[in-house]
Amino acid sequence: MARRGAPLRTAVPALVAAAALGLSACGGGGGGAGGGEVTSLRVLDYYNNEPDKTVYAQKLDECGRQAGVAIEREVVPGAQLVAKVLQQASSRTLPDVLMLDNPDLQQIASTGALAPVTDFGLSADGFQEGVASASTFEGQVYGLQPVTNSIGLFYNVDILAQAGITPPTTWDELKTAAATLTQGERYGVAFSAVADYEGAWQFLPFMWTNGGDETDIATPQTAQALQLWVDLVNSGSASKSVLNWGQADVKDQFAAGNAAMMVNGPWQFPALDEVAGLEYEVVPIPVPRAGQDVVAPLGGETWTIPRTGDPARQAKAAEIVACLNTDDNQIALATDRTTVPTKTALRDRFVAEVPRMAAFTDIVQTARSRTGKLGAEWPAAATRIYTAVQTALTGGATPEQALQQAQDG
Amino acid sequence: MADRAGGVAAPDRPLVSVAAPVPPRGPAGGWRSPRGRERLLQLGFLVPAVAYLLLFFGYPVVQNAVMGFQEYTTRTFYTGEAPWVGFDNYAAVISSNLFGTALLNTALFTAGSIAGQFVIGLAIAVFFQRRFPLSGTLRSLLLLPWLIPLIVSGAVWRWILDQDNGALNQFLGVLGVADRPGWLTSTSLALVAVIAVNIWIGIPFNTTILYGGLQDVPRELYEAAALDGATGWRAFRHVTWPLLRPVVNVVLVLGVVYTIKVLDIILGLTDGGPANATQTIATQAYHLSFQEFRFGEGAAMGNVLIVISLVFALLYLRANRRALAGEGR
Question: What ipTM does this complex have?
């Protein structure tokens, strides 16, 4: 998921970086057309939390050695990456290899700052369709994403066992289970309905699986999904605080035993594993009718090759991007970062090697990308979605009305 | 740099005259050349400040004003193309459903914050005028909220105000309040909660400035008033308040300019939610520019804020001039 390590609320300093955008034009003199031998490459990403930071440091160095270049890596906090990239784009100081959160790729590709990876003989053939579509802008592939993730339903094994409840698979089961599991200070389920993109992202599996669509959210299908959330909160099975919880807060509630189930992603595994006495499992998010496949959103970051104006450097950069996406490296990155490889052919091998990722590997199969339909218009749609969710959850309007209001702007 | 150069060239000249150049009145010592030298010096002192202002205040403001009339998107950063769209951005921003809400919230947030900060700040300042053991220490401790980074205090307050496990609701529970108010999750309470936190942050500023103002009120006046039978509230009403007025004006106007643009504390507490209940012009401008990447519309929204601040800044300048004139008397 985007910016998960640094949700926007904790990353206001990004403003400071963004404020500097206006002055960026005084940057260096551009990509340098020196044709000499390439000895080092500049890499920019936002993996500033462990284990991601170290995993990528090792993998990038390894790929650098294979390509015969040294890696000069710069890591910025998640919320500052786009501001940094825009600043570098206007001062022509873009790095040789650039990581982008997948829903941002089309936004950045639309500026013209990226080179299609096909120019360097790379392609996204064999990648999961949704993953490839997130890295595609106007028919051209601009990035290769080695691993992806999504969200599922985490449950506390002990609490469910004590209550004699099996993990819910349908909406009705979810409502019943959540109601039964709600006891005393503990809520049945927790999710994030916060007023930013995290809230919209968490709502997507419910909306999409029921046939809702981000191009027009004022539909009965989306309203039914929103009604489910409203019912969970109004019945007391979920806390009203979901309105103000980011995904990290949701994880904290689950870890503290304040929620028996939660909607969250595999990047929470390391933190949850450290909680003594917590045993948890993951299943796909419940679907409206039994037997349906859940349509969850795809997370993860894609690796791109900015137009630096130096063909030799770009060719080397392409080698790095290719290296990060070899079969072995997709598996290695997925294993170390509890994510899922994006090449569909690797699934069985991956699940055999890392059984705990089976649920998420399943979820990813039918998942789709946030920008697949709307591209650079996605942020506006996401704003409409979380606004409607918040309006309905606070009781400001019925789900139908809230969605209509948000769609009308 | 400028200071040192000035020190070498004109060791006897007080630096104060540079900050507020007073037109030479009456006979100056020498005529032509000393006067010319003085002007040159004055210019020399002015240039760095003016250059700084132009570069770091003028340029961004002008750039922002221009941006408000352009279709400025992520694309612009790479291509440099920003088509002129006239007042389209303003039309889009002002006609949006959210503008009215944001404007009203901004007004309520500013008025509520200022009223609370000022009244409590003044009460504390008056209180600390008496000397008592540890008064100095306590007064410095009051500055704490000011010293804590806003991100940190935002996170702590978010925890305190949490509906289920927050310290405040736990405390209310002990007092026997069964109903747990959703401080940050109820559309009717969230703005109140955000204002309360902002008041907490603003009290040190108000206390400090008002305390300074109170120190300037001559003791003899209180003694004289006491002889006439005016003590306590009457002394405050008829001695303290009139003499404090210029400082009060400055504090209020500065407070408005600081408060109207508050962003981080709102983002940290509610992110503008729930359901836009705490969305202000500032948070909306931030959202448009840095989350939806509609920089043109964000700039237009920001300019609305700048114009409102400007009105208060002009009021401040007037109040300030009056305060200075008052001092001169």
Answer: 0.85
Using a CB-CB distance cutoff of 8 angstroms, which residues of chain B are in contact with residue A22?
59-60, 63
CB contacts of B273 in chain A (<8 Å) are: 194-195, 243-244, 390
Statement: residue A8 has pLDDT above 70: no
The C-alpha atoms of residue A96 and residue A93 are separated, in whole angstroms, by 9
Instruction: Calculate the alpha carbon distances from A214 to A124, A205, A329, B59 in Å.
Output: 25, 12, 34, 39
* Residues A110, B79: C-beta atoms closer than 8 Å: no
The pLDDT tens digits for A315-333 are 999 999 999 999 999 999 9
Inform me whether the pLDDT recorded for A22 exceeds 60. Answer: no
Residue A299 makes CB contacts below 8 A (sequence gap 6+) with: A1, A2, A4, A102, A148, A149, A150, A151, A201, A265
* Nearest C-alpha neighbor of B168 from the set B151, B192, B148: B192
Contact A393, A243 (CB under 8 A): yes
Q: Is A108 on the interface with B (CB under 8 A)?
A: yes
Q: Tell me whether strands A70-75 and A40-45 are parallel, antiparallel or unpaired.
A: parallel
* Best mutation target, A3, A8, A9, to test chain B (most B CBs within 10 A): A9
Q: Which domains does chain A have, with CATH numbers?
A: 36-149+298-369 (3.40.190.10), 152-296+373-408 (3.40.190.10)
The pTM score is: 0.85
Domain count within chain B? 2
Quote the minimal CA–CA distance from B50 to chain A in Å.
18
**Residue with token string 């999504």:** A150
CB contact under 8 A, B270 and A195: yes
Tell me which residue of A189, A135, A169, A140 sits closest to A304, measured CA to CA: A135
